[in-house]
């Protein structure tokens, strides 16, 4: 007989914080991430990146937390938007999961609950496509 799955929202075992000013600082963000990286397992899970006030910047999931979070320390390979996110990061919350599917579900729940600024793909912003009629083209286009 299997045990019921605990409420993952209350299973925040590992929170790591680097305090600093609230101005974006790439070095401080990378330092906060590297502190977390040293203790991360090669397991699936969900991570949250927080700013200096504790507000959630981003919620992500990973098949391997250690490998995924390590990507954020490779600053030159990140797009400018993610570099900006790392520069604002001062702490992380990690929740390990039993498998990748559980991580995916938890990630979606957390994004809906907290609506982090840097999660744009899973956010329901209610924007709809529209038809744009332009005089400089022969046909209308559907754009988002």
Overview of the molecule:
There is one protein chain. With 144 residues, this protein is of the alpha+beta class. The chain has one domain (8-143): GIY-YIG endonuclease (3-Layer(aba) Sandwich), CATH 3.40.1440. It has four helices and six strands; from the N terminus they run βαββααβαββ. The strands form two sheets. A four-stranded antiparallel β-sheet has the order 1-4-2-3. A hairpin with a 5-residue loop joins strand 2 and strand 3 (56-62). The chain starts with 13 loop residues before the first strand and ends with a strand.
Q: Brief description of this entry?
A:
A hairpin with an 8-residue loop joins strand 5 and strand 6 (141-143).
Layout of SSEs?
Blueprint: E1 14-17, H1 26-37, E2 45-50, E3 56-62, H2 65-70, H3 80-88, E4 91-96, H4 100-114, E5 130-132, E6 141-143
Antiparallel strand pairs: 1-4, 2-3, 2-4, 5-6
- Helix fraction by DSSP (H/I, runs of at least 4): 25-40%
CATH topology: GIY-YIG endonuclease
What is the architecture at the second tier of CATH? Answer: 3-Layer(aba) Sandwich
The number of strands is: 6
Question: How many domains comprise the coordinates?
Answer: 1
Counting DSSP H or I runs of 4 or more residues, the number of helices is 4
The CATH superfamily name is GIY-YIG endonuclease
Q: Reading side by side through the largest sheet, how are the strands ordered?
A: 1-4-2-3
Tell me the strand percentage band. 15-25%
- Mean of all residue-level pLDDT scores: 82
Radius of gyration: 18 Å
CATH class identity: Alpha Beta
**Secondary-structure element order, as H and E?**
EHEEHHEHEE
Q: By helix and strand content, what is the structural category?
A: alpha+beta
The major beta sheet can be summarized as: 4 strands, antiparallel
Poorly predicted residue ranges: 1-10
Termini separation (Å)?
49 Å
């Amino acid at each position: 007989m299997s045990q019921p799955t605990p409420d993952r929202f209350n299973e925040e075992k590992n929170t790591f914080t680097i305090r600093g000013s609230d101005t974006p600082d790439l070095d401080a963000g990378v330092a906060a991430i590297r502190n977390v990286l040293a203790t991360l397992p090669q397991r699936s899970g969900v991570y949250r990146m927080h700013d200096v006030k504790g507000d959630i910047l981003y919620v992500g999931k990973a098949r391997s937390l250690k490998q995924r979070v390590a990507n954020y320390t490779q600053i030159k390979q990140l797009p400018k938007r993610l570099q900006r996110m790392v520069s604002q990061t001062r702490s992380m919350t990690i929740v390990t999961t039993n498998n990748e599917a559980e991580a995916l579900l938890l990630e979606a729940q957390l994004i809906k609950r907290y609506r982090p600024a840097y999660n744009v793909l899973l956010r329901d912003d209610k924007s709809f496509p529209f038809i744009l009629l332009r005089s400089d083209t022969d046909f209308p286009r559907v754009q988002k």
